[in-house]
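## Example record

The block below lists the input lines for one assembly entry, exactly as stored, with component labels intact.
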Amino acid sequence: MSLSYLTINQIKQGFKNKDFSCSELVKYYLTRSEVNQDLNAYISLNSVQSLKQAQEVDKRLKVGKKMKDLEGIPVSIKDVILTKGLKTTAASKILADYTAVYDATLVKRLKEAGVIILGKTNCDEFVMGSSNENSAFGKVLNPWNKSRVPGGSSGGSAVAVAADLCVFSVGTDTGGSIRQPAAFCGVVGLKPTYGRVSRYGLIAMTSSLDQAGPITRTAEEATQVLQVLAGKDIYDSTTTQSRVENYSQAIKKPVKGLKIGVPKEYFISGMDSEIEKKIQEAIKEMEKLGTKIKTITLPSTPFSLATYYIILTAEVSSNLARYDGIRYGWQSRVTHSLADVYQKSRAEGFGPEVKRRIMMGTYVLSEGYKEAYYRKALKVKQLIKNEYQKAFKEVDVLITPTTPTVAFKIGEKFTDPLTMYLSDIYTVAANIAGICGISLGCGFSKQKLPIGLQIMGAPFNEATILKLAYHYQQHTNFHQQHPKI
Amino acid sequence: MSLDIKQIEHLAKLARIKLTAEEKKKFSQDLSSILEYVEKLGMVKSATDSLSQESVKKESQELREDQVIGIETEELNNLHSQFPQKEDRFIKAKPIFNN
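Predicted structure tokens for the full assembly:
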């Protein structure tokens, strides 16, 4: 039986029918990851441990033990999420030799559900980037076209899923870092509502916006993974008590009558015509499913990105102050005083984008500018939040493109940070407004590069966006097309 | 708003990052263009005037009870093993004052 591109349910069925063993499956992914090393999706592979764990699963299967929800499912984890005993580098030189001493809550939950962690995926350094070119461990290639970027910051995760180097991956999204690479690689990426999934054990970039979520090949699998990740955690005071519903049941309910809002600010003149065409086709497809389409307006949308880059850099400058070369991480070799250790360790350990953002954040928080930049940004954030809240009184979900372009060429935007930042223009609002969003493939460009559709939903309404994504995938086959590598 | 090399040097000092001359030049250009972009927020002045600082809602947070939970030897050893410079169980650091 072919092991390629299996879903979670197919694997569970395969185990049950004894079509293949868990060891065979783990070997398949490990071999495929090694053969496709040029993609650079993984920073480290956990081969020995994975195979050992697979043997345990096989033993349990043999004696007919009851399987846990995700038992024996081989997955990957973005390398900014702590995994006890495994290297966790944040794709930075400053943490290149850092081994996590505890598991992030989400990792603990995945382990309890029985997953096998195949390895840690590449990403932009400290999740800062939209192309995965900022990794100290080298850039990641897009499997659809190796001269293109996979998007970022969860680029390695999106590539690992698109190229079938694991069943699913868990990434993080601060301004689009799950959804944008998912769009560029033609897979599904879900950013849950802030507070839905615990951030305990995530290496923090922007604590008020960071959120972890699944990258999968189907909406149904995103649902299954979210079910495990979601919920209150006493170690993250921002996780909410709000009930985690049975997502798998919820997504099967009909979408008829669902009100879809199309915000006109996301369809501006001069946008990529291929993307616009595919999004319009997707909207028509959804209309066929019995949904109602309505054009709406979110006038503050053009300010999301500026708001985002002020809040983000401010928090970066504070969050990354901890990397000083004293307790862990890279320490400069030739130093004379304590101040020297700080300045040189940070100079040698951080890459250019990280330095740029720390500098920018230091500026917007400095005396005399804090009011004009940081406080102002917090106010505009509230304004944007209010607008989205109002929109969700009129409609159930919002539909937009995930990205303004398809995957761009490696190097194309690397030297111009502002142009790079604009890649996140359609995704940042969901983080600023504190809502949830999902990206899924809705077609391909003439050059056979994936195009992503974004569905956004009201806070803690993941079930609704997953439901629409699930029904859309039931009627289309874009998610069944895979890159030839 | 544009930032000159002197301002960049001041920020680098505050951020505790030693920059090369080349980096200073590049960051002066980059930060100036990013600042120019984010300054568009000035355009939403009238809309945010109606929002007082108080209306910028604080996220509600529920704090857990503060408890001493202790630490296991293995965990402690793992933490110690990450120290870049150490003597026994202590972190070794350079002097704060250099004569």
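Chain A has a mean pLDDT of 96. The domain at 8-258 of chain A is CATH 3.90.1300.10 (Amidase signature (AS) enzymes).
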